[in-house]
Automatic annotation (TrEMBL), chains A, D:
Keyword Repressor annotated: no
Lineage: Bacteria, Bacillati, Actinomycetota, Actinomycetes, Micromonosporales
Protein name: ABC transporter ATP-binding protein
UniProt entry keywords in alphabetical sequence: ATP-binding, Cell membrane, Membrane, Nucleotide-binding, Transport
The keyword Membrane belongs to this UniProt entry's keyword annotation: yes
Domain ABC transporter: 5-246
Pfam families found in the cross-reference section: ABC_tran (PF00005)
SMART domains per the UniProt record, alphabetical: AAA (SM00382)
Transmembrane intervals: none
Gene Ontology molecular functions: ATP binding
SUPFAM superfamilies in UniProt: MOP-like, P-loop containing nucleoside triphosphate hydrolases
Automatic annotation (TrEMBL), chain C:
Main location (coarse class): membrane
Protein's cellular compartments: Cell inner membrane; Cell membrane
Stored PROSITE patterns: ABC_TM1 (PS50928)
Pfam families (UniProt xref): BPD_transp_1
Name recorded for this polypeptide: Iron ABC transporter permease
Membrane-spanning segments: 28-49, 76-98, 110-137, 157-179, 216-242, 262-282, 310-338, 371-391, 403-426, 432-455, 492-513, 533-556
Domain ABC transmembrane type-1 as annotated: residue spans: 72-283, 365-555
Recorded superkingdom: Bacteria
Presence of keyword Signal: no
Regions annotated as coiled coil: none
Keywords noted in UniProt: Cell inner membrane, Cell membrane, Membrane, Transmembrane, Transmembrane helix, Transport
Family listed: Belongs to the binding-protein-dependent transport system permease family.
Length: 382, 318, 566, 382
């Protein structure tokens, strides 16, 4: 059984008093259909976990409504706020959150015991569940005696054993190493296709989001910036923020004309044509051009605006960096199969972008270097 | 050179004492009293400095036993105010004390200076009581009344003088009386001064093992406390002063002992009702009506007797 | 680690190196480690030797104690009472604090550790003025407020429940420290997931939160039990009137009798030693499988649903532990004599002048400061050396040292005092009556706290700091002086201050080691309490509290309550 | 100035006594020419850091020699073991290891001060160095007042200020987030081309290794498995281990014949031809076939051995998983541009691998799941 999740105008502020409150979520609307796999994607600190925790009832929002199926979980205006234990959800945490003092069996049995399921039934359902995640043989172990991947699977089993209609995932794979992450991602997708549940999945990893989502929500600073199937979002990012976050290069330009359905932009790296037609942009306006690294071709051209700063072997493809001058910060990163590249370090080049791949937005580009200045937490304090 | 008492008479002793320059005094008296006698002595003998140390009788004993047991010279020259007769006797027998030989010794009855143990003060056990809560001093019998339950303060029986006191209580008022007192759930303290403060504060109503000096001290502060000699009479013990023969300053010790015996010294030691003086007519000294005070006869209290009293007392109060 | 073998020349057939070159600095360090272990074990061995010396005579002396069996029973009951009260309150407090809003957390954490800075002897004397049945300020206040007609009660400080209460009140802080550290380091999502899976808040605390910090619970129960068994101050001050003796007060009485019977006292200390060892062993066993409880992530404070009203219990606790005794000490110290009523017109600073004009009191203050300063300096130097050694070396000696240095925690102060007395005091060094023997005892008792702090400071320093300096051209010594030492400065400061506080409070061992001429503040305060004038006693106690308060401010302001994590 | 690094038959065992010693490095030979950029690549625990630390002198090997230029740093047989401070190397640590109690300036000046360089000279050289890493303005700050990227740059400046002939890097970028990692990697490459030094760089990240290395050393369990320029290693992995570690799929087969220069393998997924010719393999031998995900084509074929288990959008390319049966563990991961893929989930498929892309090795494949069972290290110890 699965149920649709509807979140309307959700607002969460941390820190009771009004002055120093941190508004972590600021008017979020989310609708995930019954059985869909909704993924909230966004950079660290954008409020993903906060949204998830409000659905679970672990945090009380300051405004908005949360409805699952027919049941209102939260409605500020009607003063409804169901306790977490009454919501009947499943949840998988980044840290697995397996209880260290219980065996694997007891961990998985916990949700059933809390619902006073009969003894024999518990044993059989836990057994089934462990089989499903291929961990039958570990039932008597303690969590610390399992590898990260196994722990993750047990966490999944514990979540699904109660047959919840909605399952919440908070970056469940981010503690694992790359190989395992991919493997478990696939297993999760498979499980979702086998067992019916609605998923709300939080991640900052695009690959994970693409691989799992049937509906993607890109978050930015506590708001939903774009919603849609992953393919649509990838191919038509609604804003330059989304495009950048998904890995596109972006650089500045000015709209100089139209040719039929195409917009012509005089950009830092030369004239670019684009089939995209953002609203409210006319000739003479400043604009940002964006394109994914694998969608930019290069042609040697002594009068080209770009210079190949580096060209390096990158496994499946070559990694090429093009800049406006050798020392310039404003760099484009291009990734092309080796056989498609015939430029060298130091060459002056012109960009070749298919008009369908050239995305145009209003405004000026945000550079990686602008984003870099947030201090990282130090692990050592003196 | 080996310290020793100067041979050429009292003037020689004084001169030697001044040469020694200081005298160490241990006293169990109240700190203020010690300070007072110290400054009086120092202003009379300007060349002799007094190092005084407040130390209760038991500690004096422990410390000295350790030193003498280790064959070290005592680090004290004069003891002032120790009540432990048996122990002092033991020291005297081993020749640790000099006989008093100053000019002030002349007026003293020899029984009060026997074996070099000078009776600096005579302390009767007095009945202390809170004057806010009681109109007059309670009698021993009064102490058994219900309103005294938990409101009586007693000294513990560690010092020999108190053992004698309790033993006297037993013989005078009967075993049963003491049992009933124990049934009154008295507060047990190590010092009369502390009992006195508890009486003054109102925490206790009365303390039959009181000490006049402590009461007077609190009265001076305005505390509602007074004392009386019980009608049944009371026991009294002597606080002795001695001068050590083999300490660092034996001459100064003798000079100090002489000062203790002087009318001035007696005045200070017994001032303000704080004790009974051996000398007659000492101003401010406590006076007890005839027949109401019995000095403890230590010959009646050999060690095994004291031990049995201790066990008896602890059985009741410990 | 590098070996410091000199770069040898090509010629390997040279004459053997001189002896002093062949003695590696490493073996010298191990030798020092062994000396240190010997120094730590010496008093304990002497205790056992002395206890087994003339067992018959000692046994007779002990069985001659009139109330021996009641005393032993009392010890057990008091210890159990303390543990139950302290553990329950400590755990509840820690859980309250863990569920506070994040910005209150640090303050609340600090607050709950404040009672550790209350000198025990001052606290007990303070409580006497609060809860004496007739004129204790607390009783008078309650009677007035509740309109009780009686002239005594409802409390009576001279009673068994109050001895338990006062002792437990200050043990709560220890339990709190361990449990709240464990709660903070445990993963908050453990609790949250239980909620999501259908468990109510209360049941979650019972089924998930507490079991998941089981090691800390066991540990704090063990510590509370040890401290409870070794409790001394409250029984000594209140026990005579309350007619409650415990094994430690009996030991004290044996050592302070004339002549002191050290043999019997040591024999009496053997059961305490044995119980301590058993508790330590049981603890080690139950902590054996610690790995199970180490969490993958410490998410702690972030996501728990904060409850503001939970600030109330910590505040109540701290106010209760500090305000009544301190306030009544201040009131008494300002009064001409102790009465239950407060008369501001009579108040003056006379007692303080008196105390400061009395050479013996001033002496005890300066003696305390001298001894404590020396001990702190010695303690820091030794702690740092030991910490460096046990964190760097995996040798058997290092592990043995780590074990032995932990032993003093398990044993009552009075037992250690006795051990030090008969080993360093009356042993071949013959230091009895000198300040040195106090310094040895204080370092012996409290070095472990300094060592732990410095060890935790060291483990927070990654090796790469050292390595970077070595590679950058700094030698081993230069690296130590320029990198390690400056980085450890904070840890060393707080280690020093913590030791300073604990040492200046030390009472039990000091009671054994003091002589009439060498008294520290706590023992002098005890004498004053037993023989002296109450306002003076109170003034002295207030001075002691003030010294501790200053230290507390320094410790807590340098790096917050984390300094106290032990 | 730069110097060559030569390591011969290096052996390191942790834990003094023989029985319980962990042999972390077991006969490693490494030669890095003067000015070269050598990268040691390998999975966690293979002994990379151990090798680096022995070069720095922070760990004493149990056997072997280490020579830099003409100077012997370590030679067990001749009892030579230079102290770290005498080796004159530079080293950059994963954790940056900036000393928190010193300002940026003092951090960078430290190596000079230890070498008793004159005051004025220190000031000017630190200034230059900070300029080089574009951090002049932070000279007076303390490390905790800097972002992760800035800290990394300061660590670099501190290392290079003493003009070391050899610089050691221990995963210096792994603590940074993806974007910054790429940026700093480029900067490092640039720096190396500007300042002459020999680099010994340790990482477990292939992209980093490809982008930086002029010579790559792939390590496995304390041994060097393959050495060469990255391009060569990538295109001709010497063993199946190297191929797998670099991301190739591998599956079992049997050699059934030869066609000219091509080896014909009858594999689990069908007949595969390969131009690779491993020594000692003849017809009838069992073998492993390996191919990179982007080098495998798929063709629908009802009689094909593989089944498309999932086909998911993966951004620049489609991610396709092919298995021998829907539930089988033995899966191939294929990553192809969307326009090159016309198969769907559930289709039976045949693999199309260019003989030049099909790698063949002796033995049986190692699967990711075989490698998974190592327990994950816990970061918290109490
Ligand atoms: N308990 C809290 N008190 C105050 N601020 C908080 C609290 N929890 C989160 N925040 C802030 O709210 C914002 C959103 O946090 P949230 O944890 O939802 O981000 P996230 O998108 O999940 O990030 P990450 O990917 O790092 O997990 C952040 O700015 C964070 O600092
Ligand atoms: N001090 C030590 N004592 C015992 N074993 C150690 C020690 N340091 C490392 N090892 C072991 O030696 C092996 C190699 O460790 P090393 O740190 O060199 O690996 P690495 O390749 O750098 O791994 P990573 O990528 O995780 O840093 C590992 O198996 C490790 O567990
Ligand atoms: Mg999050
Ligand atoms: Mg490493």
């Amino acid at each position: 059984m699965s149920l649709p999740v509807r979140i309307h105008q959700l607002e969460v502020a941390y820190g009771g008093r009004k002055q120093d409150a941190v508004v972590a979520v600021n008017g979020v609307d989310i609708e995930i259909g019954s059985g869909e796999f909704g993924v909230l994607l966004g950079p660290s600190g954008c409020g993903k976990s906060t949204v998830l925790n409000t659905i679970a009832g672990l945090i009380s929002p300051t405004a908005g409504t949360i409805t699952v199926g027919d049941q209102v979980f939260f409605d500020k205006s009607r003063d409804i706020n169901l306790k977490p234990e009454k919501r009947g959800l499943g949840m998988v945490f980044q840290s697995y959150a397996l209880w260290p003092h219980m065996t694997v069996f007891d961990n998985v049995a916990f949700p059933l015991r809390r619902r006073h399921v009969k003894r024999e039934q518990i044993a059989s359902r836990v057994g089934e569940m462990l089989e499903l995640v291929r961990c039958q043989q570990y039932a008597k172990r303690y969590p610390h005696e399992l590898s990260g991947g196994q722990q993750q699977r047990i966490a999944l089993a514990r979540t699904l054993v109660g047959k919840p209609a909605v399952v919440l995932f908070d970056e469940p794979l981010s503690n694992l190493d790359a190989e395992l992450r991919i493997q478990l991602r696939d297993e999760l997708a498979l499980l979702h296709s086998e067992i019916a549940f609605t998923a709300v999945y939080v991640t900052h990893d695009q690959a994970e989001a693409y691989g799992l989502a049937s509906k993607l929500f890109v978050l930015r600073d506590g708001r939903v910036e774009q919603t849609g199937p992953p393919l649509n979002v990838y191919h038509a990012p609604a804003t330059e923020y989304v495009a950048s976050f998904l890995g596109a290069n972006s650089w500045a330009g000015e709209i100089v004309g139209r040719e039929g359905k195409r917009l012509v932009v005089d950009s830092e790296y030369g004239i670019i044509e684009s089939t995209s037609d953002p609203k409210g942009l006319g000739v003479g306006d400043t604009a940002v051009v964006a394109a994914y690294p694998d969608r930019i071709g290069l042609q040697r051209d002594p009068s080209g605006a770009g210079v190949v700063v580096s060209k390096r072997f990158g496994g499946a493809a070559m990694e090429i960096v093009v800049a406006l001058g050798p020392a310039n910060d404003d760099r484009l990163r291009i990734r092309r199969a080796a056989d498609l590249v015939d430029v060298h370090e130091g060459d002056r080049v012109r960009l070749v972008v298919d008009p369908a791949d050239a995305l145009v937005y209003a405004g000026r580009p945000t550079h990686a270097s602008d984003r870099e200045h947030r201090p990282v937490p130090l692990d050592v304090q003196s | 050179s080996q310290p020793g008492v100067a041979a050429n008479g009292w003037d020689g002793i004084v001169a030697a004492a001044e040469k020694e320059g200081s005298v160490t005094v241990w006293s169990s008296s109240d700190q203020k009293l010690i300070n007072k006698i110290t400054s009086a002595f120092e202003s009379k003998y300007r060349k002799i400095k007094v190092n005084s140390l407040k130390m209760d009788s038991t500690t004096q004993q422990t410390t000295l036993d350790q030193q003498l047991g280790a064959n070290r010279p005592p680090s004290v020259d004069t003891i002032l105010g120790n009540s432990n007769y048996a122990w002092l006797q033991g020291l005297a027998q081993k020749g640790h004390f000099e006989k008093p030989q100053g000019p002030n010794n002349a007026g003293w009855d020899a029984k009060y200076t026997a074996d070099g143990m000078v009776a600096a003060t005579i302390n009767p056990f007095v009945m202390m009581y809170n004057t806010n809560k009681l109109k007059s001093a309670p009698t021993y019998a009064d102490l058994l009344k219900p309103e005294f339950k938990g409101k009586i303060g007693l000294n513990n029986a560690d010092p020999a003088a108190l053992k004698a006191f309790y033993d006297n209580w037993r013989t005078q008022l009967g075993e049963d009386y003491v049992k009933q007192i124990a049934g009154q759930n008295p507060q047990i303290q190590s010092a009369s001064a502390v009992v006195a403060q508890n009486v003054a504060s109102g925490q206790l109503l009365a303390g039959p093992t009181g000490n006049a000096a402590s009461v007077e001290l609190l009265r001076a502060q305005g505390a509602p406390i007074d004392f009386a000699i019980p009608d049944e009479g009371t026991m009294a013990y002597v606080l002795y002063a001695t001068a050590f023969a083999r300490s660092a300053h034996p001459n100064a010790a003798l000079v100090f002992l002489d000062f203790v015996q002087s009318p001035e010294g007696q005045g200070i030691l017994n001032t303000n009702n704080s004790g009974v003086s051996v000398l007659p007519d000492v101003e401010g000294a406590l006076r007890v009506p005839d027949g109401k005070m019995t000095l403890i006869d230590w010959d009646k209290y050999p060690t095994d007797k004291l031990q049995s009293i201790d066990a008896w007392w602890k059985g009741l109060f410990g | 680690m590098t070996t410091d073998a000199p770069a040898a020349r090509l010629d390997t057939s040279r004459a053997p190196r001189p002896l002093w070159r062949r003695v590696k600095p490493k073996s010298l360090v191990h030798l020092l480690g062994i000396v240190m272990i010997a120094g730590l074990v010496y008093p304990l061995v002497m205790l056992l030797v002395r206890a087994s010396g003339d067992v018959r005579a000692s046994w007779d002396a002990i069985t001659a104690i009139p109330d021996l069996w009641p005393s032993l029973l009392n010890t057990v009951w008091l210890a159990l009472g303390c543990v139950i009260v302290a553990v329950i309150l400590g755990v509840l407090l820690a859980m309250c604090v863990a569920n506070l809003p994040r910005r209150w957390y640090n303050t609340a954490q600090l607050l709950c550790t404040l009672p550790l800075f209350m000198p025990p002897i001052a606290a007990v004397s303070g409580w006497v003025f609060v809860a004496s049945s007739a004129v204790g300020y607390g009783n008078v206040l309650l009677r007035t407020l509740l309109g009780i007609e009686s002239d005594s009660g409802p409390f009576n400080v001279y009673s068994l429940p109050w001895i338990v209460f006062i002792t437990a009140l200050y043990l709560v802080s220890y339990v709190f420290l361990f449990v709240s550290t464990a709660l903070r380091e445990s993963d908050a999502t453990l609790e949250l997931s239980a909620r999501v899976f259908g468990s109510s808040w209360f049941m979650t605390q019972i089924r998930v939160v507490l079991p998941s910090i089981r090691p800390a619970l066991y540990y704090s129960i063990g510590i509370a039990l040890l401290l409870g068994l070794g409790q001394f101050t409250a029984p000594l001050l209140l026990g005579a009137t309350a007619r409650v003796d415990v094994i430690t007060t009996e030991m004290y009485r044996l050592t302070s009798a004339s002549p002191p019977n050290y043999d019997a006292a040591t024999l009496l200390s053997v059961p305490l030693l044995a119980v301590a060892m058993i508790i330590v062993a049981v603890q080690r066993r139950s902590l054996g499988n610690l790995r199970r409880y180490t969490s993958v992530s410490r998410g702690a404070m972030r996501a728990r649903t904060p409850r503001r009203w939970l600030i109330v219990p910590p505040i109540v606790y701290v106010v209760l532990a500090i305000v009544p005794p301190t306030a009544s000490l201040i009131l008494v110290s300002l009064s001409p004599y102790w009465t239950g009523s407060v008369d501001f017109s009579n108040m003056s600073l006379r007692s303080y002048q008196e105390v400061l004009a009395t050479p013996q009191y001033v002496d005890s203050i300066t003696t305390t400061l001298e001894i404590v300063l020396l001990s702190v300096i010695g303690g820091i130097v030794l702690s740092t050396a030991v910490a460096l050694y046990i964190t760097r070396s995996r040798s058997f000696v290092a592990r043995l040292l780590e074990f032995t240095i932990n032993l003093p925690i398990a044993m009552p102060g009075i037992v250690i005092g006795l051990g030090i007395l008969i080993s360093y005091g009356l042993g071949f060094l013959d230091l009895y009556g000198s300040q040195t023997v106090f310094v040895i005892a204080y370092i012996y008792l409290y070095m472990i706290f300094g060592t732990r702090m410095i060890v935790s400071g060291l483990t927070r320093l990654p090796d790469s700091y050292d390595h970077a300096a070595r590679v950058a051209g700094a030698g081993a010594v230069s690296t130590f002086l320029r990198i390690k030492l400056p980085l450890l400065r904070n840890s060393m400061t707080s280690a020093g201050m913590l030791m300073l506080v604990l040492m200046s409070h030390e009472f039990a061992a000091s009671m054994i080691l003091r002589t009439s001429f060498l008294q520290v503040l706590s023992t002098k305060l005890f004498d004053a309490f037993n023989y002296g004038i109450y306002p003076d006693v109170a003034a002295l106690a207030v001075i002691m509290v003030a010294i501790s308060a200053i230290c507390a401010v320094v410790i807590l302001s340098t790096r917050g309550g984390r300094n106290l994590e032990i």
